[in-house]
Design goal:
This protein has ten helices and 13 strands. The protein is α/β, with parallel strands linked by helices. The chain has an eight-stranded mixed beta sheet with strand order 1-4-3-2-5-6-13-12, with helices on both faces. It has a three-stranded antiparallel beta sheet with strand order 7-8-11. A two-stranded antiparallel sheet has the order 9-10. The structure holds N,N,N-trimethyl-histidine (AVJ). N,N,N-trimethyl-histidine binds next to strand 11.
Amino acid sequence: MIAIEVHLDADTAATMARDVRDGLLAEPKELAPKYFYHERGSQLFEQITELVEYYPTRAERSILAERSAEIVAAAGSPRSLVELGSGSAAKTRHLLDAMRDAGCLHTYVPVDISEEITHETAGMLVEEYPGLAVRGLVCDFEQHLERIPDGEGGRLVAFLGGTIGNLYPSARRDFLARLAALMGPEDRLLLGTDLVKDPARLEAAYDDAEGVTAEFNKNVLEVLNRELGADFDLDAFEHVARYDAEEARMDIRLRSLAAQTVQLDGLDLSVEFAADEEMRTEISSKFTYEKLARVYGEAGLAISGWFTDADCDYALSLAGPA
Ligand code: AVJ
């Protein structure tokens, strides 16, 4: 059984226009990381996940490959798996396998912004897991979290990949508190987070030798050129990736190599960049067990499971309503 609901905002384009205008007029300038993933950006991110320097994807995959049975048991053998940002559900199969083997698998709820990928993934999964019900949701999950269907028998809500690291503390608390509000006592959140480590390794992971991450970062300017009629010259900016130890996060920026004026026809806006001016394009927060326990606590959640890879580079944690 496949049922997919689409809640794509009619004014996604208007939202982007407003976001970009606000960000470029802010002091310092800033762009939202969600615009990285338009078209070529998603392919570049796929390439990032395969870089030697970029360990998070491999670390998370190894935890899921080795410990999904334990995770599913610790989550109380839930009947449904809800996945925020499901995409092609590549890593999800480990969890679905473990739920099937535990005899609890009933429903998979993929939540993703791409309608095409969600349909494709749903089609493949019902073939691979006979009897599986797929109730997909196509939406911006930050916007439409409250549309996630209820489930009796417990839900495991997976938010993998470390994407929570992109949120500033206040947005992160709001997001987790909204999740907590829609979770029943049996439901569990499974959250992927990158962990604090040697700054040199972190900086290498976000500034690889091949320059793929630099290209990924600059590609957001190409997205603005195409979608907002801007004239950013990608060669006039350089990629900057610094670890901010105080905030325990990667701070990723684009630095203007010269004084320049950028025209955004779609916004009827022109923006000045000074030489060496930096515009933030992403933060990627790093965690420890203690920090995460506190972050959960502030959102009305309590940590109930902690699973790391062999090198302790990355963690999957379980949390439920406090
Ligand atoms: C997809 C947000 C988890 O923060 O590691 C990778 C994005 N940016 N390299 C991360 C990213 C530059 C990634 N997340």
